[in-house]
Amino acid sequence: MTTTTHGTFFVERRYDASPQRVFAAWADPAAKRAWFAEGEGWDIRSFELDFREGGRETSRFRVVGGNNPFPPETTFGNETVFDEIIENERIIFTYSMDRDGVRFSVSLAAVEFKPDNAGTVLIFTEHGAHFDMADGIKMREAGWHELLGKLDEFLNRGA
Question: Is residue 70 within 8 Å of residue 63, measured between CB atoms?
Answer without folding.
Answer: yes
